[in-house]
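This section describes the prediction task in plain terms. A model, or a person checking by hand, is given the sequence of a single protein chain and must write out its three-dimensional structure as a string of tokens. No templates, partner chains or ligands are provided. The sample shown here is typical of the held-out split.
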Amino acid sequence: MNKLTIRQAAIQDLSKLVPIFDDYREYFGQQKDPAAVKQFLFEKFEHMESVIFIAQLEDEVVGFTQLYPVFSSLTLQRVWLLNDFFIAEEFRGSGVGTQLFAKVKEFTLLTKSKGIELSVEHSNKKAWVFWEKQGFKMDEEFRYYFYKL
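The expected answer:
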């Protein structure tokens, strides 16, 4: 594999990020909509609402992750919500995901965060295995709920 670069994305990466982000949405059953994706990501950069890391081979983005800050009022600390994590299919199993997550861990340590939170679909057993290999444990203390509008 050529040299893999993992770095924080900037607004200048928007055009490289849109195709893989659209692939990610399609993987989870959404219709492709590059214009809407571009607007969504532009707003995240413009308002500094999230942190995005990309895995890049030469000029091609082959993976990305997006983190959103949330806060614990009880511990008075930031928690990073790892909301999106995607590796292009042809690069899965090659170590790209592990390297991308290593950058996320480094970032959360540098920002003195309490930890990283994520959720995985009940049916996505490959993701369970991956995240457990990265050191994640299923929360047994809290039951999470979601209210859909």
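For orientation: The chain has a mean pLDDT of 94.
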